[in-house]
Amino acid sequence: EEEFEQIDFLKDRHVRFFQRSLQVLPERYSSLETTRLTIVFFALSGLDVLDALHVIDKDNMIEWIYSLQVLPTEDESNMQRCGFRGSSHIGLPYSSKGPGMAHPYDSGHIAMTYTGLASLLLLGDDLSRVNKRACLTGLKALQLEDGSFYAVPEGSENDMRFIYCAACICYMLDDWSGMDIHKAIEYIRRSMSYDNGIGQGAGLESHGGSTFCAVASLRLMGRLEETLSERELDRIRRWCIMRQQTGFHGRPNKPVDTCYSFWVGATLELLDVFQYTNYEKNRNYILSTQDRLVGGFAKWPDSHPDPLHAYFGLCGLSLLGEPELMKVHPALNVTQRAFQHLQQLQQAWRDNVSSCT
Amino acid sequence: FEWSDLEPVPQDDGPNPVVKIAYSEKFTDVFDYFRALLKNDEKSERAFTLTAEAIELNAANYTVWHYRRVLLQALEKDLRQEMRYITAIIEEQPKNYQVWHHRRMVVEWLSDPSEELEFIADILSQDAKNYHAWQHRQWVIQEYKLWDSELEFVERLLEEDVRNNSAWNQRHFVISHTTGYSDPAILDREVQYCLCQIRKAPHNESVWNYLKGILQDRGLSSHPGLLERVLELKETQCSPYLLAFLVDSYEDALETNNTRATLNQAQEVCALLAQVKDTIRREYWLFLGRSLESKYGPTAAPQSDAASSDAADQQELS
Hints:
Chain B: Its cofactor is Mg(2+). The complex is a heterodimer of chains A (357) and B (318). By secondary structure, chain A is mainly alpha-helical. Helices cover 46% and strands 2% of the residues of chain A. In chain A, helix 1 packs antiparallel against helix 2, helix 4 (110-122) packs across helix 6 (160-173) and helix 8 (208-221) runs parallel beside helix 11 (260-270). Chain A is globular, with a radius of gyration of 20 Å. Chain B is mostly helical and 318 residues long. Chain B is 69% helix and 1% strand. Chain B has 16 helices and 1 strand. Chain B starts with 19 loop residues before the first strand and ends with a helix. Chains A and B meet through strand 1, helix 2 and helix 3 of A and strand 1, helix 1, helix 3, helix 5 and helix 7 of B.
C-alpha cells in the first residue's frame, strides 16, 4: 500500500508553533540564549507572513525588545558598543528606557541590532526610541579594514552574514554613515568564487547563504547593477538555479534543506529569474518537511522543526505565491507590509528634516 | 572555591519575558555567579574555572569565551593546555562558531600553527564538508604559508569522494595561491585531471564547475581540442553539467564569431536540456534559449550553405 505524501499547508499549526516559541522553551534550547532576539524575529516575522500578528501582545513585545537596546551611558563613553543585545544574559536590571548602565562587558551584537530593528518595524513601532546615532556609531566600530564586520566590538569571526546585517541596519535607519560601502562592496567582490557563486569570504566555498547575503546587501545598497556586470549576474543566476534538486541545497553535491528555498529562492527573485524555477517540486519539498503534529518546518523530512526552518520554510512558500501567506521583501526579509511601513516612516523622517531647515 | 562573598546576579527579563528558557537550578547557579564575576570584572582562578563550567552548559555563549580569553591573558595561563582544551571541545561541537574563533585566537597568541593541519584533517574525516573546518584551514595555510602539502591533501580527499565540493574549492584555493593557472602546463594538467574525474564519475557538478571556472575568463572555446573531447564525452558520459558546459562554450564562441550555425548548436543543447536532460530547469533553459536568440540572432552571420553564400558574395560585390 503506497503512502502518499501529504502536501497540504497547515496554517493554524504554524501559528501555534510560533506562539509557543515566544513563550517558554525547555533547557535543551540553552545554546540559543545569546541569540534569543533572532528567535523572536523568526516567530514575529513568521506570524506576520501568516497574517497572524493579532495573536500576540504587540506593546509588551515592543517593550521587551527596547529593553535589549544598549544605550549610551551619561558620559557617552560606550558609543562604540551600542546596538541591541540578544538577551538579558549579561544580567543588567530590566530597563526599556535610557540612559545606558555602565558595565564592563555590555555591548550590542550586529545580528541582534538587525533583528531587533526589523522586529520593532514589523510590530508597527516608529523606532522613535531607537538611539540611531548610537546604533550607527556601534556599527561603524565593527567594520574591518577588509570591508567585512565583526559581530561584537570585543571581536568575533567576520564574514558575509554580518555585511548583510550591517546593510539591513543602515537601510532601515536610512543612514549609510554606519558603514564604508565601498570597502564592503570590495569584500563582496573578493568573495566571488571560480564557480560563480559567492562564499563567506575570499577563497571560501560558494554557499547559498552567503550568496543571498551578498546579493541582498548590494540590492539594499542600491549598487547591484553597478557592481556586477550583466555577464556576472548571468553567472550568479546560473549558479543559483543549479541549486534546485527538488527543494534547494546550499552547495553543490550537498543534500537539500528547507531554508535554502528562501536563501537561494530570494536571490533568484532579486535577479528576476525565480519565475524559471520548478515551483511544484520546491513546494512539495518544503511541505514534506512540515511537522504535521507540532507545526513548523524542519530542514529535512521526519526531523524536528525549529523556529529558523519554520520561518524560512514559510518565506520559501511565500515566494511561491502560497495563497494564505503575505508577500516577503526578498532583500530585507520582512513582509511587504512591514516594508511599506518602513517607507512611510522614512518619508516622515525626511519631511521632519526639511521642515526643520 | 569559596563563593560566599559573591552576590549572584540573576537574569532580568522584566514583567513579560519573551522566548524564556527554563533552566535547571544548576544551570541558573553557574550563570548567576558568572554574571556576578563579569560585573566586577574579577580576574581570578575561580573565575577561570567557572568559565569552563559555563562553556560546558552553553558553548555558544560568546561572552563567556571572551571573558575566558581575558582571564587567559590576565592570569598568564598555559596556552598549550588551552589548545588541548579547545581541541576536545571542537571535537564534541564542530559546528559551533565560538569554539573555532577561540582556537584561532590561541593559535595566534602562540604563533604556533603546527598542530592545525592534522587537527582539521581529523575533523574533516568526520565531516568532510564542515565549513568552519575549511575556513579555519584556509586561514592557517594563508597566515602561516603552509601550502606545501595541501594539494596532496586535496587529492586524497577527492580520491575518497570525487563529489566533495569543498575539496574542489580547496584545490582552486591552493593552485591559485601557488603556481596559478597562467602556465599552460599547469592549466592543461588541471584540464586533464578534470576529464579523468569526469570519466570516472560523470554526474558530478563540482568537477564541471571547476573545469568551467578555470577556463571561463580565458574563453571556454580557447582551450585547444577541449570542445571535441566534451562532444565525445557527450555520447557516453553525458550529464546536465556537460550540456551546460557545451551551451556556455557555444556562447563563448558566439562572442567572437556570431554565426547561425553555432547559435543553432547552442539552441539544440538548450532544447535537449529543457525537454530531456534537465527538465527541473525547463523554464530556465527555454529562457536561456530565448536570450541567446535575441542577443545573437539578429546579427548572426547567415548559414553557410551554397545558396546563402552565393547571395552573400553577390551582396558584397555590389
